[in-house]
């Protein structure tokens, strides 16, 4: 068995997989603003007590907007290139449901490099509600999957999750800053063993171990 503690490969350029890449700085501020407002809209719509006339008007306005915006769709698999605070270049899928720049559903989770992995902070609203006032377990798993998958990508090279085990230690609250951590524990060829956790008020609410399989880079 070979155990690597150092990066085992250069991060591949997604263009070599035939994927389009946009720089995060080239995403228009107006689009970022729209994404943020639609995120708020989803939360409001899920909880509104507005009267029927207002609801009908809102549905018509949203239908009209949807039609106007449904032009020039990006190619599926479009990636965003960003430079992390330590200078590392990172790639992420632009509509990634957890951290995509243009996904209105994403919390979003932005992760920064720390020794051995990545760390981020996120606060969840009712979009992510499962039990009353608490995060849905599937979303807790999604946050952890993203954190450990991204940690694996920046510490070694990108891969897919082969196995993810989550221990739910405490309920994960909504409207509370959450610390999300992912790290690489060891690598063995294409296998990357990773772990992570979510903390609320410093207490671990969920922890995960996972196995990532690094994708093979085209020659
Ligand atoms: C450039 C692009 C940038 C992208 C940026 C991404 C950012 C990341 C953020 C994303 C975050 C979100 C992340 C997501 O959402 S990833 C999306 C969710 N995951 C998937 O859809 C993955 C589906 N599964 C597969 O595609 C294949 O099974 C994979 C690719 C995983 C392996 O199929 P592949 O044909 O390639 O490999 P192999 O079969 O030769 O196996 C190789 C080795 O691995 C061992 N093994 C395999 N499976 C398991 C298992 N379950 N338990 C234990 N061991 C397992 C196997 O025994 C062998 O070991 P060894 O015999 O060598 O010792």
TrEMBL record:
EC number(s) from the headed UniProt entry: 3.1.2.2
Membrane-topology descriptor: Peripheral membrane protein
Chemical reaction(s) catalysed: decanoyl-CoA + H2O = decanoate + CoA + H(+); tetradecanoyl-CoA + H2O = tetradecanoate + CoA + H(+); dodecanoyl-CoA + H2O = dodecanoate + CoA + H(+); hexadecanoyl-CoA + H2O = hexadecanoate + CoA + H(+)
InterPro entries, per database record: HotDog_dom_sf (IPR029069), THEM4/THEM5_acyl-CoA_thioest (IPR052365), Thioestr_dom (IPR006683)
Domain spans labelled Thioesterase: 133-203
Molecular function in Gene Ontology: hydrolase activity
Official protein name in the record: Acyl-coenzyme A thioesterase THEM4
Organism: Nocardiopsis aegyptia
